[in-house]
Design brief:
Radius of gyration of chain A: 20 Å
Order of helices and strands of chain A: HEHEHEHEHEHEEHEHHEHHH
Distance between the termini of chain A: 41 Å
CATH class of the largest domain in chain A: Alpha Beta
Helix content of chain A: 25-40%
Largest interface: A-B, 26 and 29 residues
Largest sheet of chain A: 5 strands, parallel
Strand content of chain A: 5-15%
Strand order of the largest sheet of chain A: 7-6-5-8-9
Number of strands of chain A: 9
Oligomer: homotrimer
CATH topology of the largest domain in chain A: Rossmann fold
Number of domains of chain A: 2
Chain lengths: 328, 328, 328
């Protein structure tokens, strides 16, 4: 059974984009859309989650991801608490489940979980109490669903419908938790064609089964694309010599202005950040007119607000609701 | 004179449960009771301490304890600031008193103090300005009063009156700051009989003077008990060979279902956490129907809210007060 | 052009006290004055910056400075987020500018920047987007403008007008970011006479050009002074043997009660903290009746509230404004 949906098909946890039906994905994006107005205002705050407690439960450090969830929670008026599990009572020998039970007993409403092991967020979701929600903020090579959601949200804002689009995902597919989540979301939303472009050594086995077309040659893969989604070269996750050298990688798979000419004239360029300039993407492209990389960051706050409000709210989780709470 | 009471007998600081009269203990528990309703709601927040500043002043790290005070402060709408003194200007050679004077000058209202040295919270309380309150969050082997208060609060919620009860405290009494605080609170509240069960090497000298009965044999000590309060085996605090081995300790003092049969049929099992499963308590007991360990955690938030609101408030510190502030 | 003023002469960033005209300095001090009432109340909070996001962007750790900005932001109801850049994605190879662009894209409103390199805050201010403000919380030896502003604010509160005053700055001028900022602010405010007192090895070249009088002999320099501003001996910043010894330094430049007799009878003693007792100042003086050191700390919150509200607000940034926001 799908752990992340409740009996009414509502979002109960967000663990992976895999298995989320198109209607629900669309609802998440619509909810995120309603928050973009909030973020643009000078008072960037709605009282939707006032008095709710969100725990950033980070088993591996990521200032960047922690920051985005912290900002999203603040803008929903939730209380947020950062727990770096590496330095907590886990070191006193307490088990993960005991730590969870304790935080639940403190009446926390949601855990944002970051972990270096694949499946950690699922494990936690399987064991939390009925009232507590889990949001996966990245687990091992497995999934990074809020990143994928902000990516498809960005595509929808820039391009409209998914059906006519050809989307190319380029780079280290093998070590990327983002790529899997992106592919699932893009397929579910009915994207016309999804391509992955990578050297054979950085491709997972049987990736075609997800419905994507595989290219080893970048020029061929970019041909006619509407969206180019670059991946970060996860140098810190690579063990052994999967790559000849960074220079060689850039020569074959780095995105340059010249290569971008193979795409549609109005193609957009995306990257989950942080960018390795000159490794997987040329600065001229990253900072160029086709880049929507910083839009992705902005959209990431709205998407995380949407996910938090949906797993914690009672069904009235758009930006407009909750306003009357203030007035009363 | 009792440093922690003001001239009207009100709670000015919370340093130890020792010397707090029964009436005041009862008032703390009553105040905590009023907050249990707040914690159970989806908007877990009252505006009682809005605009007040609480500093978590931690000289030794404890994510768990810091978290409980941070949550309690958030739910009272106080502003809270964590200062890990190990990394602060103490390392620039500033004295503790100068650090205190500075934080006071920033108009902080309360310090929650955690320190590895016994007496540290008292020292700070002796030196703070009239308007500033100190809450001891554990100092050396000396005291951990909020833990003891949440323990007696839990007993009262589960059992009602203290007079008819036989309470057995089991384990490493010598190194436990909790045990001392528990004994003082239980005696002041009129508990029928308080027992301590421990090997001779883990008993402080003259412990009988506190009014407790001492047992070296666990089965005898548990006989007819209404409440069993297990202590954590403070392995990290033990120097030298006070114990034969963990296996041997568990064989003689570990709480198992079999041993629990010596207690009353409705006896409850408590533990301050984090649990060493299989060292001082069997998992079947910790997770069993008699365990109220997670209730203790929940009650800990209410008790810390009560203490904070009493040392900071002006006498109107129950959950109901402050509500009108919101409406106005 | 002056980076820190906008086309209407308003405060856009606060990078240095250098070049801020007297009228604007006075306006900052007046705004700070309006906040002193807020800080003294039990509800120390105004809703002026509700829904605004301030980032403490600390490239070198300083618990003390971080705390003052965090408290100031909380009391203005802003959301504040601490980013210790040493542990963030900078370590993943992201450039400073990319980090900035990302935080801006998350719609942060202000950066409070602390850096060990002179000019870092200017660099950041030159590159932020139009809507984002930068506050320098200390950069290398260069500037520490909020400290200097709280110093002149304290002088004005204690002494009134600047014109009749003789102010002596004593100690390690060479390594002090505070001294430069103080001198600029004091000169702009029309201070009668500003003196610096230091051994030749701790004086920057050409310091006289700033308009100060230089004394190597402390007794001569203190003669008739209204204000004595001691500097911290920056032992951790001194490389090589600029000083004979701490004992020798104290003998020649330490402030004692005896030396203080050379000043005016109503002279005040200031120090930016943390104090090295017995190194640059005697405890009897630091804790004595002429010391306003702790007033400086209190005033520091009001001044930081003033600066934050001026760079973030739309011109209605005194403590009184925003009140109606609450009522409505």
């Amino acid at each position: 059974m799908n752990l992340q949906l409740d009996e009414n098909g509502r979002l109960r946890h967000l663990l992976t984009t895999e298995g989320i039906p198109r209607e629900l994905l669309t609802r998440i994006l619509d909810t995120a859309e309603s928050f973009t107005g909030v973020i643009g205002k000078s008072v960037k705050k709605v009282p939707l989650l006032r008095g709710r407690t969100v725990i950033n439960l980070f088993f591996e450090p990521s200032t960047r991801t922690r920051t985005t969830f912290e900002l999203a929670a603040q803008r929903l008026s939730a209380d947020i608490l950062n727990i770096d599990i590496a330095t907590s009572s886990a070191s006193k020998g307490e088990s993960l489940l005991d730590t969870l039970r304790n935080l639940e007993a403190m009446q926390c409403d949601a855990f944002v979980v970051r972990h270096s092991e694949s499946g950690a967020a699922h494990f936690i979701a399987r064991h939390v109490s009925p009232g507590v929600a889990v949001i996966n903020a990245g687990d091992g090579r497995h999934a990074h669903p809020t990143q994928a959601l902000l990516d498809v949200f960005t595509i929808r804002r820039e391009k409209g419908a998914f059906e006519p689009l050809t989307v190319a995902i380029v780079g280290d597919i093998l070590h990327s938790r983002v790529a899997r989540s992106q592919i699932h979301a893009l397929m579910a939303l009915g994207t016309g064609e999804v391509r992955v472009i990578a050297p054979r050594t950085l491709l997972p086995a049987h990736i075609q089964r997800l419905g994507v077309r595989v290219y080893e040659d970048m020029d061929a893969g970019l041909d006619g694309a509407d969206v180019v989604m670059m991946l970060r070269l996860q140098r810190e996750r690579m063990r052994g010599a999967l790559l000849p050298s960074e220079g060689e990688f850039f020569r074959r798979y780095g995105l340059t202005e010249q290569r971008l000419e193979r795409t549609r004239p109005d193609a957009i360029v995306m990257h989950p950040g942080p960018i390795n300039r000159g490794v997987e993407i040329d600065s001229a492209v990253a900072d160029g007119p086709r880049s929507v990389i910083l839009h992705q960051v902005t959209n990431g706050i709205a998407v995380r607000m949407a996910v938090m409000s949906m797993v914690l709210g009672g069904g009235a989780e758009t930006a407009g609701s909750g306003r009357e709470e203030v007035a009363s």
